[in-house]
Write a structure and sequence with these properties.
This is Glycosyl transferase. With 335 residues, this protein is α/β, with parallel strands linked by helices. It has 13 helices and nine strands.
Length: 335
């Protein structure tokens, strides 16, 4: 055992709650036992598991209470239904851990996930510790981490940059990380039922002094037909416009033109996706389509005025604004 491992073990012995794991629960009776069991079997034992029954109409609340009888690390909150964001906030209000983690009630994790993330956070003095994940439909699937481990660190601006590259999904989701509890002193989840990851993650990344990342896959994301990642277009997705408007203003105030331009570019892509989603499902809703088109014009102008714009995207966004069908045909050819 080296000195770092000894110091870490001393920290574990002297702390009652290293990590507060918050799980929002709604209609999860078919998955809850597997998810909770994967947490209780963690090699890092010094945690509390906060199960937040978000007014679930099935037997999830009763299952939570029964699980709590068998392990005093489990705390149960029963509340009226308000969505995952309000459930996570309720968990944050009572969390005692040095770090915070979020696990979705239909997912499960590797036995050493939190030990690995906690050690990385301590070794690299990081406010956020992040791992990789797999998306699966098979409960019997077993992760094989046979590739060479790669560990990277990012400062706050570099972490924000990962929202706009190949690390986007791994960066924007909540559940593959642990966070210093102090990050949530002034940050809470917005009262919304979708895009809450997108709405809060950039604030947490900016607030953190350092993020440490391992490419080890330690989290199993259950790929279900009704998951957000697979959900069909719904008009509720229009709330994304408010999320990105706030995000754009936040990035503008950073005085980092590169990050600001990338935020505008990704916003435009999202607006274009919204437009074609509306055209495919509610083509007669002219008011909504007009709203989206006007937003596209506004954001494309801001992107054009950014000193870090890419000329090809100015051309393509202008084409979309004038001839969406032609834009779509061209992008299909280019892709």
């Amino acid at each position: 055992m080296n000195r770092n491992d000894k110091n870490l073990n001393d920290n574990i012995k002297n702390s009652e709650v290293l990590i507060s794991i918050i799980m929002p629960i709604y209609k999860a009776e078919d998955y809850l036992n597997k998810s909770v069991t994967s947490i209780l079997n963690q090699t890092l034992k010094e945690f509390e598991l906060i199960l937040v029954d978000d007014g679930s109409p099935d037997n999830s609340g009763e299952i939570c209470d029964k699980l709590a009888l068998n392990d005093d690390r489990i705390k149960v909150i029963h509340k009226e239904n308000g969505g995952a964001s309000t459930a996570r906030n309720a968990g944050l209000d009572i969390a005692k851990g040095e770090f915070i983690a979020f696990v979705d009630s239909d997912d499960w994790i590797e036995p050493n996930m939190f030990e690995i993330l906690f050690k990385l956070a301590k070794e690299y003095d990081a406010d956020i510790s992040q791992c990789n994940y797999i998306k699966t439909e098979n409960e019997d699937e077993k992760i094989i981490n046979n590739e060479t481990e790669v560990i990277k660190t990012f400062n706050s601006i570099e972490s924000l940059g990962n929202l706009y590259n190949e690390m986007y999904v791994s960066t924007v989701v909540l559940w593959n990380k642990i966070y210093k509890k102090s990050l949530f002193n002034e940050i809470r989840f917005p009262n919304m039922r979708i895009f809450e990851d997108e709405a809060i993650m950039y604030k947490l990344l900016f607030q953190s002094n350092k993020l440490v990342y391992t490419n080890k896959k330690l989290y199993y994301y259950r790929n279900t037909p009704d998951s957000i990642m697979n959900a069909k277009f719904d008009k509720k997705r229009l709330c994304m416009l408010d999320v990105f408007d706030e995000k754009v203003e936040f990035m503008r105030k950073l005085n980092n033109e590169n990050i600001y331009a990338k935020t505008l570019k990704w916003y435009m892509w999202s607006i274009i996706d919204l437009y074609f989603g509306c055209m495919n499902t509610i083509p007669d809703d002219h008011e909504t389509i007009k709203l989206i088109k006007n937003k596209a014009i506004t954001i494309s102008k801001k992107y054009s005025n950014s000193s870090s714009h890419e000329f090809k995207w100015i051309i393509l966004f202008s084409l979309f604004n004038k001839a969406p069908k032609l834009y779509k045909k061209l992008m299909n050819i280019l892709n």
